[in-house]
User: Fold this.
Amino acid sequence: MSYDAPRAARAADVRQPRNAASRPRSFQELLQEQGFNGGAPISEQFFKERISGRHNPDIFAELFPRMSAAQHDALTDDKEARFRRRAATSLRPLPGLVELAAALTRRGVRVAAVTNAPRANVRARPVRCSAPSAR
Assistant:
């Protein structure tokens, strides 16, 4: 089943975690360097309406229609590398996530995480869900 609500409505209804700021900044830098919008920064509204919730190839195809698919792929790789550099120092699990996963694991409940993030992004910043150490 697909979800056909307008992108702007979906983006407005979803509260982004504090870590989500890394993705807009990665797009912001890349788009400015590519001269999109005359090199001016994109607005938060633009990000929500045209980028958030979409796949990179679709985003770059829309924003840079004269570029080839190979160029879109290169932009995607660049954007994701920027994100991973930020993630290495700034991403943190949501408060209580690690403790919840550890508590479930101690009770024998199997725990898994699901994401649509590129595999390289997941491997760059794994979240460990082991039991917290005694204080």
User: Anything to note?
Assistant: Confidence is low (pLDDT under 50) at residues 1-18, 131-135.
